[in-house]
Design brief:
Layout: H1 2-11, H2 19-35, E1 59-61, E2 71-72, H3 75-89, E3 96-103, E4 106-113, E5 116-122, E6 128-130, H4 133-137, E7 153-161, H5 164-176, H6 185-193, H7 198-202, E8 207-216, H8 229-238, E9 248-251, H9 252-266, E10 274-281, H10 284-290, E11 292-293, E12 296-297, E13 300-304, E14 309-321, E15 327-338, E16 341-347, H11 351-357, E17 364-368, E18 376-382, E19 404-406, E20 413-415, H12 422-433, H13 445-453, H14 468-472, H15 479-491, H16 497-503, H17 511-521, H18 524-529, H19 532-535, H20 543-554, H21 556-567, H22 577-580, E21 589-593, H23 601-610, E22 614-616, E23 625-628, H24 634-642, E24 646-648, H25 649-661
Parallel strand pairs: 2-13, 21-22, 21-23, 23-24
Antiparallel strand pairs: 1-6, 3-9, 3-10, 4-5, 4-7, 7-8, 10-13, 11-12, 14-15, 14-17, 15-16, 17-18, 19-20
Bound molecules: 2-(butylsulfanyl)adenosine.
Residues 67-69, 100, 102-103, 107, 123, 159, 211-212, 278, 297, 300, 302 line the site of 2-(butylsulfanyl)adenosine.
């Protein structure tokens, strides 16, 4: 069974199992073989490094085999590793290690002769690999010629990987062209490096970090490979080879575990994928004394992070109805522990996505949750239930029964019920009360659900009529909380025009557009009477958004809700022209990432500060906007995961524009 998965993983690049499950299988097999040594056969997967070279490449025999690493999953495993070394070396003192990220790519070896790149090969089965010289030469960070005075023969070993941003860009393009998308950056790196045509490899955003040695000849005086792993890394770097900047020298198990925790916390913000850390005993004399067992050195171990992918079962696929009536398919899963949490629901975004991934009820799927990013179905492993039919878009809203419509060419299908649909009412109230809108503290999802269900609230305007007596009658609602809630609702009456406009939940009108609309019109009545052409005068408002705005204000139901809100005392200070220029971004924290075209990040930061906003280096729930330039990387993923609004450069400029002119 493991051999089958090895083939899928190493040769076909199409694994059927999440990595963690594979690791578990190996652990089980090793335990079995330890218990019943008679069962151990020489071709057991535990006895070799997996994989077969693909025939089309030239075969390279590694003079020094390329080994693998044993895995540690817990702190106890790491302690046991350290203890074994102490025992074998007969040493009592704390040991020195080098801790490095375990890069999630594929191992390669690169031979330099007289400083010139001569040959590069994949690990293959550890003894024989594939000749990928032409492809490795296309990796920009790999020098064709070494600097300084390297050994006459130097075989440097490391990991080829694909930085996450490059992976995402590549898949986006592939998707647009209807081509095959890669499952993850590791598969993508492997697939890209093993292209028979180096011109294709050259177009792929591959990178390489070196971390070890194969063969080498003694170097000229004073320019050797050093006595330790740490010195080796410095030497490789001096010769111009790329080395990961995250490697650290640490002391003892505590140093190792400290590094593991620290790097684990930063894992999501690294520009490349790692699946753990590697501890290597630092002094090379000791490494040599310890040697190897079958496929792995005794002096190094990989300490894996908890799995961020797992396989589970799709129990059902349901459609949820959002504020704008959008129908979102959600997969109900057999609960599975992944990325540190138990996941039982995953959004499938839209029906197009469901069909593209061909997810069906009863399927086994790989679920991924990395860092704070929302969990996703990576892909289907197997359609187990042969009877399961393709998921169909319902023709009627599952909540209110109104017709569902899907505009030609749009991914999203919508319930046409509007405010008659309970789900849409509920989401409208939820949005209205949310922190960035009217900010009604204590009005949580459960409570809104109850209010809608008991028909105490039909529209946001009804919130302002709620009495303590009505609230206390609800389940789990005490007098104190009822009183607090009424007060919070009362406080929300005094708001600002941009918040109010955002709270209305007009389609495509986020905070930035609401602000721009408020600044441009200065007054709600003017805005509500404006034509599409007039609304389009607002910076960065195109015909689609303008049409949504005008349609919103021309609906009698919406006008009535607004009138009732104002009658209930919802008010905001008038935005007179001079006030409009004063500190409009006060209280907003921006994070700026990626490369901007029109200005530098520094200038962008100054502009935000000048308008009373704050700029932070990291994304959190408190971030008001993430400004994303080109190649935004992990901050964008984090922001999306946390639901932080993302402004592209043009939207950011539009937001600043009215003020920069003043
Ligand atoms: S050292 C003899 N260092 O992990 C030591 N390996 O699971 C051999 N890997 O085959 C490897 N990052 O592909 C080493 N910093 C690192 C690594 C690393 C990733 C990969 C490598 C290796 C596999 C073993």
């Amino acid at each position: 069974m493991i051999a089958h998965h090895d083939y899928r993983y190493y040769v076909l690049d199409e694994p059927e199992l999440a990595d963690a499950e594979y690791d578990r299988l190996m652990v089980e097999l090793r335990a079995l073989e330890a218990e019943y040594p008679d069962l151990l056969s020489p071709d057991s997967p535990t006895q070799r490094v997996s994989g077969e070279p693909v025939a089309a490449f030239g075969v390279v025999t590694h003079t020094i085999p390329m080994l693998s690493l044993d895995n540690a999953f817990t702190a106890e495993d790491v302690q046991a590793f350290d203890r074994r070394i102490h025992e074998r070396l007969g040493s009592e003192t704390e040991l020195q290690y080098v801790a490095e990220p375990k890069l999630d790519g594929l191992a390669v070896t690169v031979i330099y002769r007289d400083g010139q790149l001569e040959r590069a090969a994949t690990r293959g089965d550890g003894v024989k690999g594939e000749d990928v010289t032409g492809n490795v030469r296309t990796i920009r960070t790999v020098p064709q010629r070494l600097r300084g005075t390297p050994p006459a023969l130097l075989e440097a070993r490391g990991e080829v990987f694909m930085p996450t941003a490059g992976f995402e860009r590549m898949n986006r393009i592939a998707r647009e062209r209807g081509e095959k998308v890669y499952i993850n950056p590791r598969n993508s790196a492997s697939g890209s490096l093993r292209q028979l045509d180096p011109r294709i490899s050259a177009g792929r955003p591959l990178d390489l970090f070196f971390y070890g040695l194969g063969m080498f000849t003694p170097a000229a005086e004073g320019s050797g490979i050093g006595q330790t792993q740490w010195e080796l890394l410095q030497a490789l770097r001096q010769w111009g080879l790329p080395v990961c900047a995250e490697a650290r020298r640490v002391r003892g198990v505590d140093g190792c575990l400290g590094y593991y925790a620290e790097l684990g916390a930063r894992r999501a913000s690294l520009p490349y994928q790692i699946d753990g850390v590697v501890y290597k005993l630092d002094p090379r004399v000791d490494q040599e004394r310890l040697g190897f067992v079958s496929r792995a050195p005794r002096w190094a171990i990989a300490h894996k992070f908890p799995a961020d992918e797992a396989t589970t079962l799709v129990l059902g696929i349901e459609f949820q109805v959002g504020r704008t009536g959008a129908l979102t398919p959600v997969a109900r899963l057999e609960p599975v522990f992944v990325g540190g949490v138990t996941v039982s629901n995953v959004t499938l975004h839209n029906i197009g996505e469901v069909h593209r991934k061909d997810v069906r009820v009863g399927d086994t799927v790989i679920v991924r949750r990395a860092g704070d990013v929302i969990p996703e179905v990576v892909r289907v492993v197997k359609h187990v239930d042969a009877q399961a039919t393709e998921v169909q878009l319902p023709s009627q809203c599952p909540i209110c029964g109104s017709q569902v419509s899907r505009v030609e060419g749009e991914a999203v299908a919508r319930c046409t019920g509007g405010f008659t649909c309970r789900a849409q009412r509920q989401e409208a109230v939820r949005h209205f009360a949310s922190r960035r809108a009217m900010d009604i503290e204590g009005l949580g999802d459960k409570l809104i659900e109850q209010l809608i269900e008991h028909e105490l609230v039909q529209s946001p305007a009804d919130l302002y009529r709620l009495s303590e007596i009505e609230l206390v009658a609800l389940e789990r609602m005490g007098e104190r909380s009822a009183n607090k809630l009424v007060q919070a609702i009362d406080r929300s009456r005094a708001t600002t025009l941009p918040r109010f406009l955002f709270a209305l939940g007009i389609r495509e009108v986020g905070e930035a557009t609401a602000l721009a609309l408020a600044v441009h019109f200065g007054d709600l009545d003017k805005l509500s009477r404006a034509s599409v052409a007039e609304v389009q005068q607002v910076p960065d408002v195109g015909p689609v958004v303008a049409a949504h705005v005008v349609a919103f204000f021309s609906a009698a139901a919406h006008r009535e809700v607004i009138a009732r809100l104002r009658a209930a005392g919802v008010r905001w200070p008038r935005l007179a022209a001079p006030e409009r220029s004063a500190q409009p971004l006060a209280g907003m924290t921006f994070v700026i990432t990626g490369t901007l075209q029109a200005m530098t990040r520094d200038e962008a930061q100054k502009a935000v500060l000048a308008l009373g906003g704050r700029v932070s280096g990291s994304v959190s729930k408190k971030t008001r906007y993430l400004v994303a330039g080109a190649e935004p990387g992990s901050k964008l993923r984090k922001a999306t995961g946390l639901g932080v609004p993302v402004l592209e450069e043009s939207a950011f400029l539009a937001l600043l524009k009215p003020y920069r002119a003043l």
